[in-house]
Each structure stands twice: as structure tokens, then as C-alpha cells.
């Protein structure tokens, strides 16, 4: 009963929010999309011209994105920039760039209160996404998608972007927050995860190497996506070629190694992000090579030599950082990432630790694959 009531409340809320956007037709129904860890995403259907038209409606998590208007400014200017570039080549951008709907007052969002911020974009026709990529073809395609994203934005004025989440991929700062969480032990879980804490602390030197290189000032700041997991790319459901990079919330100035590395964490793992059987977790070198082939082939002409040398190291940095963020959140009592079962953050953290340790063993081999495709 309570569940039905809840559903009805959500239905009413969604209908009310949809009415704020300029969408022709009649609202019909919604489905929940559960793949993201931060925002709440719904697929909504409108009836128009005798058929159903679908849209993606999202409630932005304003605890994470404290200045959602600035975030939407980044997103709209980056999407418009890419759209103009694609169109200038005579190709349609309909399926390759996000298209946000406007509200009655011409904004790309509905800001109802501090905790009630919504946006709506067209569902890209005939598209699918993968939580975990199921083939080398999809992995290579996702590499190409994020590489092309870099290419499109290579001349974008990077300093015009808002810093949506300060220190997002500052691994040194992430270690500081991790130590703070251990110290505070808000959820009383510290004793139980002593070996994982020790594991992450032991990787600090290698995981923060990229940050130290960044501080030396030899690596250019680019427009980076910063959340390059496979589920943030849409593919054509028939051909499995990539169509569009999505989830642009964290587009900010960053290092190309962030985008390469964060993608490898998911695309080249033999397991899921929260694989429970740790004996199944390692780097899948075939998928890694497929990703590197796609990504590096797309960016090789813009990469500096120093950048190229950091790509495999980026995978280590991003995997340790992300795993440590899961463990930090577990210690804090699961307040940041969405979880679908009680110990999920701990499972994610354990899995990332094993994956990162395997990457460290294979670091030279991983870098030599980058070199192979950079020629
Ligand atoms: P989150 O920030 O919660 O990760 P995303 O923007 O990544 O949200 O969207 C979650 C999922 O919704 C995606 O993985 C994809 O499956 C689907 N999705 C999002 N936007 C679109 C779109 N414009 N067209 C088709 N599917 C989409
Ligand atoms: C979050 O929103 P989503 O699920 O795409 C997180 C990323 C993490 C990722 C781990 C703003 O991304 O940084 O790498 O989970 N996004 C934010 O899967 O913190
Ligand atoms: Mg996403």
C-alpha cells in the first residue's frame, strides 16, 4: 500500500515537473533509471502525433552539485560548442549531442528550491548504454567516444568553465578526506575495514604520482569529462557504435589522464564495479587494449609527450581514488553514493583495491600499449 502511495506521489511529482518544460504532447508515464550513483533519473513518455516520444528527466543532487546553475552553464556551453562543430561538417548532431528542453522562461532547468533542481533532455533515439561493457567492440567504441570528446573541445577556452566540484580529481586531497573519515569514524565501521584502510594507505605514493606531475606544471589543463565510465556513453542499439557522450555534470578543467584512467577502471575490469568475488577481479588486458586503441587513436595528434606518458598511471590514480572514495563513504555511513544493498560501498572499495593492485603490477605493460597506438 505504502509503496503504491509512494509511486503515486512520484508520478504526480514527475507530471508536475514535466509541465514546467516546453514539451509538446501529453505526459503518459515514467520509468526509473537506476544506473547513476548521484542524481535521480527517469525516462518519461509523452504521447504526440500518434506515438510515444521519450525524454530523460533528472533531479540533480544539489548536495553534491552545490551550484547547479553553474553546472548547467558549463553543460550548455560545451554542448552548444560541440553541436556547432559537428554541424559545420555537414553532419546531423541529433544523435551525437545532448539536447536540453527549455522551461517557459527559457532556462535549461527548473529550480524550485535548494533541493529541487530538475532538467530534461531528449532521449536519444535508438540508443542503449552499458553498465559493464559486454564486448571489446563496445569498449573500443567508448574509448573513441571519450577521445573524440577531447578532440572536439581541444580549443575550447578551458578557464571559462566553472569549477563545479573543487578538487574533484585531486588524489592528495582525497587521501586527506579519507584520513579525516578514519579519524571521525562516524558510522563506527573503522575496525571492520582495517585491512582495506591499510591497503589504500599503502598505495598512496603511486596513486598521488599523477597529482605531483600536475603540480610540476608540465601537463596541460584540458576540458575533461571527469566521469568517463561506460554508462556515460550512448551506443547505437544495432551497430554498437558510439553515438554520444552524456552525463556532463563534472565537465571541468582537468588532465587527459583523468578521462583515460577513470574509463579504464570500468571498461577494462574483468568484474563489475561491485564484484563480490574478488578472485574474478583483474585487468582484462584485451579490453584494456581495445579501450586504449579507441581513445589513443582519437587523441594521438593532440597529446603532448608528457601527457602520453601519464595515461596508464591515470588508470591507477583514478581506480585508487574512486575505490578510496567508496571506502570513505562507507566510513561516513553511506551518505554520498547511492547504494542498493547495505554493504555496497565496501564491496566496491574492496573490488577497486584488488583492481588497482593488479594495474600496478601491469603498469609498464599498460603504458606500452598506449605507446603502440600513439605511433
Ligand atoms: P547519472 O548522473 O545519474 O549517472 P546519467 O546522465 O548518466 O545520470 O544518466 C543515467 C542513464 O540514463 C544513462 O546511463 C543512460 O542509460 C540513460 N540516459 C541518460 N541520458 C540519456 C539520453 N539523452 N538518451 C538516452 N539515454 C539516456
Ligand atoms: C559517480 O553519477 P555517476 O554515477 O555517473 C561519481 C563519479 C564516480 C562514479 C563511480 C559527481 O558518477 O565521480 O567515479 O559515481 N560522480 C560524482 O561509479 O561524484
Ligand atoms: Mg552517469
Bound molecules: adenosine-5'-diphosphate, 2-acetamido-2-deoxy-1-O-phosphono-alpha-D-glucopyranose, magnesium ion
Low-confidence stretches: none
Main sheet attributes: strand count, strand direction, barrel closure = 5 strands, antiparallel
Work out the helicity level. Answer: 40-55%
What attributes does this structure have?
375 residues, Phosphorylase Kinase, domain 1, Aminoglycoside 3'-phosphotransferase, Chain: A, domain 2, 2 domains, five-stranded antiparallel beta sheet, 13 helices, 10 strands, 46% helix, globular, binds adenosine-5'-diphosphate, binds 2-acetamido-2-deoxy-1-O-phosphono-alpha-D-glucopyranose, binds magnesium ion
Give a short overview.
With 375 residues, this protein is an alpha+beta fold. It has helices at 2-18, 68-88, 136-152, 171-184, 194-202, 204-207, 209-215, 256-267, 285-299, 305-309, 311-332, 344-361, 363-374; strands spanning 26-33, 40-48, 51-59, 110-113, 116-122, 127-128, 222-224, 233-236, 242-245, 252-254. The relative contact order is 0.13.
Outline the structure in words:
With 375 residues, the protein is of the alpha+beta class. The chain has two domains: 4-125, Phosphorylase Kinase, domain 1 (2-Layer Sandwich); 136-374, Aminoglycoside 3'-phosphotransferase, Chain: A, domain 2. It is built from 13 helices and ten strands. The strands form three sheets. The protein has a five-stranded antiparallel sheet with strand order 1-2-3-5-4, with helices on one face. Strand 1 (26-33) and strand 2 (40-48) form a beta hairpin. Helix 9 (285-299) packs parallel to helix 13 (363-374). The mean pLDDT is 96.
